Amino acid sequence: MAEPRFRPGDAVRVMKAYPLGHVRTPYYIRGHTGVIERICGSFPNPEELAQMRDGLPAQPLYRVRFMQKEVWPGYRGNPADVVEIEIYQHWLEKA
Amino acid sequence: MNDRGRYRQLTYFQLMEVTLRELLVEKGLLTERQIADAVEDMRRRTPERGARVVAHAWTHPEYKERLIENGTRACEELGLDVPALKLVVVENTPQVHNVIVCTLCSCYPRMLLGIPPDWYKSRNYRSRMVREPRAVLAEFGLKVPRQTRIRVHDSTADMRYLVLPMRPAGTRGWSEERLAALVTRDSMIGVAVAKKPRRK
């Protein structure tokens, strides 16, 4: 199991990468910065599982909170609206 | 033979399903009985399960705390088996409205809500709920006040989500059973609020 590198409240940036395969990081959030909302536990890496490999070491999974107004240009609504997304550790870097 | 018009041809995916099912049985990996039982189990899971959890949380504040702390364990307390489901319960308040979407596919808390509605899997819902939640919610007939914050939960990986709607006014002293009848599937996805009690 890979050690969790982030804690709730930490600012993180989602990597801006475009690998092929079964990736669970939505396109629209790549390159954006958010804050760790909680650690969900560790799970086998789905990108590896999809290739019939064991997905180990398990990757810590986080819920990351992003401000909608920073994700979408011209976002209409409350400036405090958020979107929260589950993202695996190997997609995150310290912001 | 001219059966056109009377019989509809199987679609590509229907044909694939039949072929795979028959092969699994033929190779002795599954029996027809096991498949029928699995389908029956799936049918038995309906939003009434989720409604039971919500009504119990409305009437038991300590249970509500446990539910928000660890949704999976709290469901087990009610005898609801939620295998392979890490449940995150998010609570609606006058300040925050929660709504669930899976932009990548159609992840859904099937153990508590059953089979997802078609619109949940539509490209329209999946792409727009993150981008313009207020406009989409308005299309469902739900106008969220501007001062209320919206939290969209994109169910992208191993968690599953359930919205705990607000308990409607005018239900003081109601039994769990009566309350559960007000909890709709849509209110647990977050595209609606719980039903209001009918005036006598």
Based on the model shown, name its key terms:
heterodimer, A: mainly beta, SH3 type barrels, 5-stranded antiparallel beta sheet, 2 helices, B: 200 residues, alpha/beta, Nitrile Hydratase, Chain A, two-stranded parallel sheet, 11 helices, 4 strands, globular
The CATH topology of chain A turns out to be SH3 type barrels
Largest sheet entry of chain A: 5 strands, antiparallel
Could you say which structural class the secondary elements and strand pairing of chain B correspond to? alpha/beta
Q: Kindly name the structural category of chain A.
A: mainly beta
In DSSP terms (H or I, runs of 4 or more residues), the helix count of chain B works out at: 11
**Rounded mean pLDDT score of chain A:** 95
- Profile the largest sheet of chain B: 2 strands, parallel
Counted beta strands of chain A: 5
How does this model look, in words?
The complex is a heterodimer of chains A (95) and B (200). Chain A has a single domain, classed as SH3 type barrels (Roll), CATH 2.30.30. Chain A is 8% helix and 36% strand. Chain A has helices at 46-49, 68-71; strands at residues 11-14, 33-43, 59-67, 82-88, 92-94. With 95 residues, chain A is mostly beta strands. Chain B has 200 residues and is α/β, with parallel strands linked by helices. Chain B folds into two domains: 12-43; 45-189, Nitrile hydratase alpha /Thiocyanate hydrolase gamma (Nitrile Hydratase, Chain A), CATH 3.90.330. Chain B has eleven helices and four strands. Chain B has helices at residues 12-26, 32-44, 47-59, 61-69, 71-77, 110-113, 118-121, 123-131, 133-139, 176-180, 185-189, and strands spanning 86-91, 96-101, 149-154, 159-164. Chain B has a two-stranded parallel sheet with strand order 1-4. In chain B, helix 3 (47-59) crosses helix 4 (61-69), helix 4 packs across helix 5 (71-77) and helix 8 (123-131) crosses helix 9 (133-139). The model of chain B has no long low-confidence stretch (mean pLDDT 93). The chains are: A mainly beta (95), B alpha/beta (200). At the A-B interface, strand 2 and strand 4 of A face strand 3 of B. Strand 4 of chain A pairs parallel with strand 3 (149-154) of chain B.
